[in-house]
Amino acid sequence: MLFEFNDNDDLYDLDLSYFNLDKMDKLDNNKYSMNLKNSNDLDLENGYFLGNIFSNIYDPYKNYKPKKINSYSEQQKMLLKIQELDFIENDLALYLDIHPNDTKVFEIFKRVNKELENLKKKYYEKYEVLELICDNKSKYTWIDDPWPWDGGYYV
Amino acid sequence: MFKYDKKLQYPIDIKNKDLKMAKYIITQFGGSNGELSASLRYFSQKFSMPTEEGKALLNDIATEELSHQEMVATMVNQLISGASVKELENAGLSGQYAEHGYGLFPNDVNGVPWNASYIANVGDPIANLMEDMAAEQKARVTYEHLIDLAKDEDVIQPLLFLRQREVVHFNRFKELYEKYTKEGYK
Ligand SMILES: [Fe+2]
Predict the structure, then answer these.
(1) Domain boundaries, chain B
(2) pLDDT in tens, A44-80
(3) Do B9 and B16 form a contact (C-beta atoms < 8 A)?
(4) pLDDT tens digits, one per residue of B27-81
(5) I need a surface site. Which of A66, A68, A74, B19 has the fewest CB within 10 A?
(6) Scanning every residue of chain A, which has its alpha carbon at the shortest distance from the alpha carbon of B55?
(7) Rounded distance from Cα B163 to ligand 1 centre (Å)
(8) Each residue of B84-96: b (16+ CB within 10 Å) or e?
(9) ipTM beyond cut 0.85
(10) Taking phi first (over 0 means left), then psi (-120 to 50 degrees means alpha), and beta for anything else, what does residue B55 get?
(11) Which chain B residues are within 8 Å of A95, Cβ to Cβ?
């Protein structure tokens, strides 16, 4: 099943104190994750599955519970993380559009962006291109199935 | 300009055919409160937003709505996948089949084609933002009705996601509306 909790999913665990930012600068990380937790009620851990990273405006419907998405293969896990980071980046951007002077959130945005770019690069080196401009494989692969609407969770 | 990313904003993998659900969900593809309406409404309005914040917000939400249009279309496409003509007929989709075969067409739940009168743009930031807030609420409610009608988790989960995005958009439009009112835009 696509929609089930999966507690063993630690391969690309998107913990932005969480987001394995440790690779970038270890020293800053502690200070940073503290800021994160106090910063505008951001729920970076569950925000993607909830459809909203801002807990202060999260609005559940009846008793429906949004579920984490299961991923089977290494490729699925990685693609899902890319989708998740991309989503978080977008949700932060909508906030920053009207709060451009919130430096704390802008710092988070920059880190998410950097993590996302790194992961996308790894993904298309290993698997497939997600953006036309990145098709530098030995043949033109942009047209390759599956396309996003094909289902089967893309892989 | 726009560039395509070869991924959905949120994964959709519906394994069970459900023609009735397809007939309902199509309304978010081409109905008055649907994603096409949302995208074009904000896309049209961004050109007359008076400040950087307004231009950015309308631009970015318009873009996101287009990716929701893709998600909705993906849901409908997967829900009708493998259906026979007889099954379409039984689900009340014979008219849809006669006109469009298995192709997707932006119409509402009753087959009425998408119409530009679903969107508004009066060129005034306050009036437009008020319109946008109402539009987001109407889209939220439509998703709630669709969730009420759905039984399959593969369908419910993306609908919950899309509903929550309307909640976020509503709140951002509201913040901008309040900011503009304070700044004296009428
Ligand atoms: Fe929206």
Answers:
(1) 19-183
(2) 989 999 999 999 999 999 999 999 988 888 999 999 9
(3) no
(4) 999 999 999 999 999 999 999 999 999 999 999 999 999 999 999 999 999 999 9
(5) A74
(6) A97
(7) 8
(8) eeeebeebebeeb
(9) yes
(10) alpha
(11) 172
